[in-house]
Amino acid sequence: MFGKILDYKINKNVIKVQFEEIEALISIINENVVNFFVPLYKNERNSKAVENLEYRDVNFSAQLKDSKLLIKMNKLNIEVNDNFKIDIYDKNGEVLCRDYRGEREAFERRGYNLHLAKQEGHNINGHKDYKVFVSKVMENDMYFYGLGERTGSLNKKGYHYKNWNTDDPSPHGETFQQLYKSIPFLISIKNKDAFGIFFDNHFESHFDMGKENSSYYYFGAVDGNIDYYFMYGPEVKEVVNQYTNLTGKTPLPQLWTLGYQQCRWSYAPEERVLEIAKAFREKEIPCDTLYLDIDYMDGYRVFTWDKEKFNNPKDFTNKLKEMGFKVVTIIDPGVKVDREYGIYSEGIKNNYFAKDKDGIVYKNVVWPGESVYPDFMNSKVRKWWANNQKIMMDSGVSGIWNDMNEPASFNGPLPEDVVFNEDGNEVTHKEIHNIYGHMMTKATYEGIKEYTKKRPFVITRACYSGTQKYSTVWTGDNVSTWEHLRMSLPMLMNLGLSGLSFSGTDVGGFGHDCTGELLSRWVQVGAFTPLFRNHSSLGTRDQEPWTFDKETEEINKKYIKLRYKILPYLYDSMWEGEKTGAPIIRPLLFNYQDDKKTYEINDEFLCGDNILVAPIVEQGSKQRLVYLPKGNKWIDFWTNEIYDGGEYIIKEAPLDICPIFIKASSIIPMALEQNFIGEKEQDTLILSIYLSDEDEKFTYTHYLDDGESFNYRNGIYNEYEISIENKENLNISFITKNNKYFKNYRKVRFILNNFNGKDIIVNGIKADVKDNLIEINI
Ligand code: GLC
């Protein structure tokens, strides 16, 4: 396809390589990131994920020698060969990533009548031809991660996945090749060194990690350009940082969004919602958010209220506000065909809906019956949709839930030839399917931001790379099974590695009926998941925390309260994440890449840097094996026992115990108890200090701001630095580093875990300790 290399030209960071048949561009983005671009479809990049491609000044040289173009950078050496075969080495000359030279050799099924199997309903995925295709040599000792929301295990080696946002209501199984989100980003660890590949092509694309043939892994798409970024680590952390530099970091959310959220299809009429709200307050189970699913609308018309069920929406949301609840409402893309309905008639008048190939407004069927689809590729439509958010905000709604935006219909995926108008250029559904949800959430985010001036809370089911800038995500319609609880862990860990840090599953499971035991075990995971939302489907049994029995109600309450305690820690981690891209839920390997035993741990995760959670994900199980990674000691959260890293232990875990371990020599900031965020003045900062049994020195930075506005982007926040030196004495220093936010704590309470009775000096003054507690005024 390319032919031999003829020549090359350098223009700033871009090297144009002339092959016999075509020209390719290699762009040196920074010391760690290189982009490979071949205009097979359009000359220009038209990325919806990378909105500002920033080039850094990089020292590099290029030289054409023996029909090889050698590009030397500080950290990488790249060899470009005939036919655009690329080999990438680290500075020690170790191979990182080599293009595969042979032809594809797909495993062929022989001797059977595949047709019969298909007739019986078996899903047979045969060999697929791609217009865009890049294959790389499968080296020894490779592990694969990322790729967004996927069923199955953490390590994706040996599997094949498709990027085509899909609403498949059948219970998601390990063999599913696609779900609601398309994140064409892969991380690989090879001999302990990591690199990433981001294939920024939003047509239907595929990643195959050695399923087709164990000699190579590949990515390919049905159309579009070759446009991929190679990102060098060697730490996974650095790869994620680079990927999120390109596609955007998950921004700091409003604090209340990290509280517990209760949802169901559907809470209606308003009396039912108020009943749920009262039950939370009476039972003193903390909760910040209640959701309204599709039944709050008038005949499923988006941006309307059913006035019989919700007589006066503003009064209703005010009542909830007084009780400390925020309301989030669902908004689907499908607009009901109804000439009497403002959103439809306005959209028709202004040409805001997608068209069929003959130029007639395209119709399909979703909740409201016959519906049309807003053309989110068009900036005028996005502006219109953004302005419509005002309707909901004026009713006192605090956040918007975007669903069915794959886009879904009751008749399967939309036809490929549905036409969208990208500000003057016609594009088909085939090209933009995977970014439809992304563009919808972008419009939603921008509308809420403009109108409220606060950090918008948007939650979406469909997305593409980069959606993390605009929205939190949930993993769609799971079911109330132990298998789905188990599978949610690697799914959330890979979502986190894929930039989507603010994520969660439907706690308790959406489809089918939950049990008390399953809900409690799921709540134990949810307490450490950034988005902590219980949701269940129409027709399933009640799933609120108190609806099973007294024992599980108490357990659920205990973990929801624990969640509220650790909110300052979660908020600190999200603040850190906005700077580095580091996810909240992350696999152990993210922090312990040197410890290969962490590479395939599916059933434990880290919540930020300091908390390791090893939940129970089997019915009836009351103990489990826990691996504690090498590199530091670990402290049992419940008993304060200290363990060495690099060990497997058996932890007893009756139903009220979720095995939790805190990194020794670390600090967890905590909040005072409350039933919702803002209920009580948080005038005391609690710092739970986890001492190890050795001499040690460590620091922690705690962050505080108003929890809702964008003022923090102008430096209006406080930062407190806590340093601990534990030798002959225990020396604690507490310094306010940045103090631009007017509110401050009045007191700091230090809780000393594993304290062995030495003298304690706080900010140079000997302190009194009582019951391992010290309190100081600041
Ligand atoms: C979809 C969503 C689910 C929602 C339902 C009704 O199935 O995934 O969360 O409850 O639609 O709106």
CATH topology assignment of the largest domain: Immunoglobulin-like
Derived structural class: alpha+beta
- Bin the helical content: 10-25%
**Gross geometry:** globular
Largest sheet: 9 strands, parallel
Bound molecules: alpha-D-glucopyranose
Number of helices: 13
Main β-sheet, spatial strand arrangement: 31-30-28-25-21-20-19-33-32
Q: How large, in whole angstroms, is the Cα Rg?
A: 27 Å
> Can you tell me the CATH architecture of the largest domain?
Sandwich
**Arithmetic mean of pLDDT:** 96
Distance between the termini: 69 Å
Can you tell me the number of structural domains?
4
Q: How large is the share of residues in beta strands?
A: 25-35%
In the predicted model, the low-confidence regions spanning at least 5 consecutive residues are none
Number of strands: 50
CATH superfamily of the largest domain: glycosyl hydrolase (family 31)
The CATH class designation of the largest domain is: Mainly Beta
